[in-house]
Structures are given as structure tokens and as C-alpha cells.
Amino acid sequence: MLLLSVLAAAIAPGVALLAYFYWKDRYDAEPLHVVMKLFLAGVLIVLPVMIIQRGLMLWMGDDSPVAFSFVISAGVEEFVKWFVLFHIIYNHTEFDEPYDGIVYATAISLGFATVENVLYAFTEQATFGMLLSRALLPVSGHALFGVYMGYSLGRAKFSTGRAVKLHLAISLLTPWFVHGLYDFLMQTVPSDWLWVVVPFMVVLWLRGIRSVNRANARSPFRWIKREEEIKF
């Protein structure tokens, strides 16, 4: 019974955050089976990511907080998520509005974060308090990294010319930098890290919500819905 309770506590934050961003799609909700496909992809990439990270640690060492944060941790994780996301969904017919990028990117990010949380729960014998703190910090952090990735991916999808490559680059570089900075702070800030990390997370959430609103505002279905409401 305790095992099931811990497992549920480890899985619940990722599912809840995915549901939140899924329901923030105001105009044209994505098919659940496609969203779950991306969530499962996030689950499946955990093992190859861990293997690559282990290899890099053996090669580079993990003594440098900068190298560990920006290369071994954020560099590998965000690149693999971006690579899989781009090749699965970028040219998919269901990717038909800018906000879709956020839904799909948060799905793959939260699939990854959920497995990380489950592994942490059982390898570290985590308490519910520890799992709650992870829900508020690393799990929601992965969700927000996904928001930044998906927002720029949506911009790229519906741009033309040089702007496409620019937004594609930003869709990888922004989550990589923010993720790396988060990991760096977690490693280098002294014992009163809450006073730095919590405001940092608040800023990430504010920027994330702004990205959500901007992506929704660019939806081509926005005007169709308005016309339908006026007719009604």
C-alpha cells in the first residue's frame, strides 16, 4: 500500500501539470493519443539520456558545476528532448496552431520528469515532503523548459524565411540555458538556496504563462471561434 502511495505521489505532479497546459489550449485541443505519444517518448528517452550523461561524466568528470549544469545535465537532456520532439511532431498534421508546440513539448518534458521523479522516490527513499518539493521545483521546472521550447517551436512552425531557423535555434537554446542556470543555482547557492531558487521559479512561471497567452493569441482558430460566437 505504501509502495502504491509513493508511486502515485511521484507520478501525480507530472500528470497534473500536463493536464493544466493541455487545458490552457483555448481554441483547438490536441488529440489525447498524440499527446500521450509524446509523454511516452519522454519516458523512453530517460535511459539513453542516462547512458550519455554517464559517459560524459566518466570523460569530463563532474567536479565543475558549470560543465555539469550546462553540458552533462541541461545540454544532454534538452537536446535529446528537442531532437525527438522535432522529428516526431514538427511536420505532423495535428501541429496546426502555435500553442500546439507548448502542449507537445510539455508532454515530452513531463514524461521525462515523471520517470526521474519515480526513480528519485525509490532510490532515495523519498518522503512525501521531499516529493512535494520536487513537484514545485524540478518537475515544474521541466514543464516550464517545455513551455519555452514549445513556444519557439510554434513560432518556427508558423514563420517564414530566416525566422524559421532563428526560432528553431531559440527553441533549443532557451530551455538549455534556463535549465542549465537552474541546475547551476541548485549546486552553487548555499544552504539558504530557497531565497534564490523560489524567486527564480516565480520568474520562470510568469514568463511561461506569458508565453502560453502569446501562443494562444496567435492561434488561427481564434478568429473562427469569435465568428461562431458572434453568429450564435
Automatic annotation (TrEMBL):
Its EC number is 3.4.-.-. GO terms for cellular component: plasma membrane. It is an enzyme of class 3 (hydrolase). GO terms for biological process: proteolysis. It is found in: Cell membrane. It is a multi-pass membrane protein. InterPro entries: Peptidase_PrsW_arch/bac, PrsW. Keywords: Cell membrane, Hydrolase, Membrane, Metalloprotease, Protease, Transmembrane, Transmembrane helix. The chain crosses the membrane at residues 6-23, 35-60, 66-90, 102-122, 128-151, 163-181, 193-209. This is Protease PrsW. It comes from Cohnella fermenti.
